[in-house]
């Protein structure tokens, strides 16, 4: 059983401690919801896991490999095993959906022909299969920018699947979506967790959604963990502290 | 009470208007002083202007063709026909073709080198600040030195002919486009690149899929504009021996082949205007430029 | 779903490269063929190029070895710079002033009938089509060598471009202010003065400043064909092969242009805020 061990992780921006000593252990196959208000350190924490942001102190380990000290090719390999989806989908709007999904395979399986836009038949079939899981394969040749928000996010998930990842990091994936599309995206994430066994770590600002979909909730406040447990154990007092309702 | 308020207000208004008037007068006086200073440095006086005007009129009437409406469309032996005016047309067309190719080649090579260097001189894609600084300064040098100076240099080193002009224009194009391209990169959206990085892509993939799709229409638009400018430039680099129709124009002006001067100038104007129109058409209708930023 | 089925459902995706994006293939091919054609057409030979570049070695050497620095004629260089600046200044000023009436005459707002407007516009196009250097050659013939011809060349060439810019700015100005004035009974001239001109004035001034900047560059170039100023100083030293002095002058020119750049940008920002 591979687990992600985070030990005393800290991140300092100028004189603000965005993440102030977080220690966690995340097991394979869990769906983790990270909750807390804006500025609590959720996004920074997530981005330290795939090293888009460099930790100031502390360490992250996966399967006994020290993630925090990886460099170059090894770092890229880690990033290919640890996929990420974003609040604003981060697709390339001008190019078609299929190529957007194929981009996900570049970390895992790169050859220089990719640079002129040529991908192998095998990868194209993979991409189409992934799109098909979300009922989006007819849109394969449409420009990504023409799709709706919900569709774009699901294309992003298909792109993430191309990486054959062990972990999926989701940074506020539904914050830009309406409730119906948000539910569809969360359902799809649940599906890939149950069917493919991918560990999901998801930043959410909606407590209801988090309670509904996640096996385990981690509440952050001011860069520290103030709650770590099952959704049912989240009392109203702790919710209030997380979202600082009384002090607003 | 309210009368005092209004009086204060009026006074403030008067002060403002007074200040404004004072400022305007100051500007006008400084301009006048500048004009006087400049005129004395250049030694302009009205007598020179007046003496020169009739000479200008003479010159213009000499270079204008003597076309006769009765013989307009006769062949080139008859004075007064268009064919007589343009008897050297085959030579001009050959030179125009050379001029066109000079500009085209310089634009193609210059823009390619500029593209490569632009990655090094954009803050968000340069590998480190030393390379950024050196590349930026180099590009500024090639952009700041007028092409004609490079042309003189290369004519001296490589001999008279279009190659000197091509190299001069290529250097200038590289500098100018390099700067413009890197500005486009700096204004681009980082999100697609972030996604590529997060999925384990290497630097070339990040550029090809994360940056280029966004910036390519702008790059092509700037390159077409540059081509317009290079066409203009290549018509005059010939003045210093760098080939093309400019060389011929310089010759006919110096040897006072009057009617050929107007013939060539007219051809140049027509060429420049057509390329301008073609480029404008391509930029407006074929390329989708990202204006919503 | 099996692989074969997928391929059959989306045939276009599995076409070979040349079928999927023919445009990029054709463009790349054309460019490649064109380069081969040019190498032939211009008689490029690596030998000639290498010979030429070895001739340039002494030039590069003297660019960094300034032996007799103190004995150079700095006076002529200083006067050259002043002449060039004066050329650019007078030419831009004259062109700005004349372009205002010309630009207004070429604009829809002022001249309602299209025929006279058309004539004026073609006339301006003609002036713009002739490169400033050609004007300089013509004026040197008529008025002799020296910066005077340069001023005239800048004046004529800029009038063409500035007038077009002004007329476009006038065309794009907000109609509402003008209509408001007309409907309250103002005559044509007053409408212009209070309705149109206040809107376009900042653009006029800003453009003129921009042109002063670009004209100082042109003035340098004009000097090379005989219009005096620092351009003439530079070309004389290059003809005499004093490469070190030539390089020095080039640096001075770059500094001068950069300084004017800054000044112009500073003034233009102030204008926007007035």
Structure description:
- The complex is a heterotrimer of chains A (248), B (293) and C (274).
- With 248 residues, chain A is of the alpha/beta class.
- Chain A has a single domain, classed as P-loop containing nucleotide triphosphate hydrolases (Rossmann fold, 3-Layer(aba) Sandwich).
- Chain A has helices at 42-49, 72-81, 97-103, 121-133, 149-162, 179-196, 207-213, 236-243; strands at residues 3-13, 16-27, 31-35, 57-62, 65-66, 82-85, 167-171, 199-203, 216-221, 224-229.
- In chain A, strand 4 (57-62) and strand 5 form a beta hairpin.
- Chain A is globular, with a radius of gyration of 18 Å.
- With 293 residues, chain B is mainly alpha-helical.
- Chain B folds into two domains: 2-62; 88-285, MetI-like fold (Orthogonal Bundle).
- Chain B has helices at 2-42, 46-63, 82-85, 89-120, 129-144, 147-158, 162-186, 191-198, 203-236, 245-254, 258-285.
- The model of chain B has no long low-confidence stretch (mean pLDDT 86).
- Chain C has two domains: 3-48, no CATH class; 75-273, Orthogonal Bundle (MetI-like fold), CATH 1.10.3720.
- Chain C has 13 helices and no strands.
- In chain C, helix 8 (132-143) packs across helix 11 (188-227), helix 10 (175-183) packs across helix 11 (188-227) and helix 11 (188-227) packs parallel to helix 12.
- The longest helix of chain C is centred in the C-terminal third of the chain and has 40 residues, at 188-227.
- The N and C termini of chain C lie far apart (69 Å).
- The mean pLDDT of chain C is 82.
- Chains A and C meet through helix 4 of A and helix 1 of C.
Concise description?
The complex is a heterotrimer of chains A (248), B (293) and C (274). Chain B is mainly α and 293 residues long. Chain B is 78% helix and 0% strand.
């Amino acid at each position: 059983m591979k687990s992600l061990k985070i030990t005393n992780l800290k991140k300092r921006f100028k004189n603000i401690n965005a993440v102030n000593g977080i220690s966690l252990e995340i097991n394979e196959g869990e769906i983790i919801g990270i909750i807390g208000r804006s500025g609590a350190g959720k996004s920074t924490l997530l981005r330290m896991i795939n090293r888009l942001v460099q930790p100031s102190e502390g360490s992250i380990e996966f399967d006994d490999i020290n993630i925090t000290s990886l460099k170059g090719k090894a770092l890229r390999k880690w990033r290919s095993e640890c996929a990420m989806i974003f609040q604003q989908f981060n697709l390339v709007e001008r190019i078609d959906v299929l190529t957007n999904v194929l981009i996900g395979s570049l970390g895992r399986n790169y050859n220089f022909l990719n640079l002129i836009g040529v991908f192998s038949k095998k990868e194209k079939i993979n991409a189409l299969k992934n799109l098909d899981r979300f009922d989006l394969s007819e849109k394969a040749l449409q420009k990504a920018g023409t799709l709706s928000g919900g569709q774009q996010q699901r294309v992003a998930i298909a792109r993430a699947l191309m990486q054959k990842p062990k972990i999926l990091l989701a940074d506020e994936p539904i914050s830009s979506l309406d409730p119906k599309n948000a539910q569809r995206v969360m359902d799809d994430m649940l599906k890939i967790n149950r069917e493919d066994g991918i560990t999901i770590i998801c930043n959410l600002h909606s407590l209801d959604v988090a309670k509904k979909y996640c096996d385990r909730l981690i509440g952050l406040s001011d860069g520290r963990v103030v709650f770590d447990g099952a959704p049912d154990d989240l009392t109203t007092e702790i919710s209030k502290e997380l979202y600082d309702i009384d002090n607003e | 009470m309210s009368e005092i308020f209004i009086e204060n207000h009026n006074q403030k208004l008067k002060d403002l208007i007074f200040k404004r008037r004072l400022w305007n007068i100051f500007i006008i006086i400084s301009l006048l002083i500048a004009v006087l200073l400049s005129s004395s440095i250049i030694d302009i006086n009205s007598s020179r202007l007046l003496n020169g005007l009739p000479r200008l009129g003479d010159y213009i009437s000499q270079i204008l063709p003597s076309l006769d409406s009765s013989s307009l469309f006769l062949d080139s032996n008859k004075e007064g026909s268009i064919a007589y005016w343009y008897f050297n047309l085959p030579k001009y067309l050959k030179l125009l073709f050379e001029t066109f190719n000079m500009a085209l080649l310089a634009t193609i090579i210059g823009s390619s080198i500029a593209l490569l260097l632009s990655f090094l001189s954009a803050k968000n894609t340069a590998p480190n600040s030393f390379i950024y600084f050196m590349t930026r300064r180099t590009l500024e040098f090639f952009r700041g030195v007028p092409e004609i100076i490079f042309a003189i240099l290369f004519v001296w080193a490589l001999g008279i002919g279009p190659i000197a002009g091509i190299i001069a224009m290529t250097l200038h194009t590289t500098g100018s486009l390099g700067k413009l391209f890197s500005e486009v990169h700096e204004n681009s959206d980082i999100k697609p690149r972030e996604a590529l990085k997060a999925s384990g892509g290497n630097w070339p993939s990040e550029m090809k899929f994360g940056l280029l799709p966004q910036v390519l229409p702008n790059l092509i638009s700037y390159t077409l504009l540059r081509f317009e400018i290079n066409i203009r430039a290549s018509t005059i680099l010939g003045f210093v021996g760098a080939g093309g129709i400019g060389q011929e124009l310089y010759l006919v002006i110096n040897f006072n082949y009057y009617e050929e001067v107007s013939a060539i100038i007219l051809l140049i104007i027509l060429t420049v205007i057509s390329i301008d129109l073609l480029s404008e058409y391509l930029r407006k209708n074929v390329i989708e430029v990202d204006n919503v930023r | 779903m099996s692989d074969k089925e997928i391929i059959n459902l989306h045939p276009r995706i599995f076409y070979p490269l040349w079928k999927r994006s023919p445009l990029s293939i054709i463009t790349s091919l054309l460019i490649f063929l064109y380069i081969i054609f040019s190498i032939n057409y211009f008689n490029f030979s690596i030998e000639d190029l290498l010979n030429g570049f070895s001739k340039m070695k002494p030039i590069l050497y003297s660019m960094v070895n300034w032996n007799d620095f103190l004995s150079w004629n700095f006076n002529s260089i200083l006067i050259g710079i002043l002449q060039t600046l004066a050329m650019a200044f007078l030419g831009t000023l004259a062109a700005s002033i004349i372009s205002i009436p010309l630009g207004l005459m070429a604009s829809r707002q002022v001249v309602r009938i299209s025929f006279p407007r058309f004539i004026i516009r073609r006339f301006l196009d003609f002036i713009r089509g002739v490169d400033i250097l050609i004007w300089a050659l013509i004026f040197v013939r008529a008025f002799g060598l020296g910066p005077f011809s340069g001023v005239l060349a800048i004046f004529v060439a800029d009038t063409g471009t500035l007038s077009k810019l002004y007329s476009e700015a006038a065309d794009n100005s907000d109609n509402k202010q003008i209509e408001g004035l007309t409907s309250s009974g103002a005559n044509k001239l007053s409408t212009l003065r209070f309705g149109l001109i206040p809107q376009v004035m900042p653009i006029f001034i800003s453009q003129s400043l921009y042109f002063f900047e670009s004209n100082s560059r042109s003035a340098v170039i004009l000097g090379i064909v005989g219009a005096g100023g620092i351009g003439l100083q530079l070309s004389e030293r290059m003809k005499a092969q004093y490469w070190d002095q030539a390089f020095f002058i080039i640096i001075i020119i770059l500094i001068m242009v950069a300084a004017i750049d800054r000044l112009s940008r500073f003034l233009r920002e102030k204008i926007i805020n007035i």
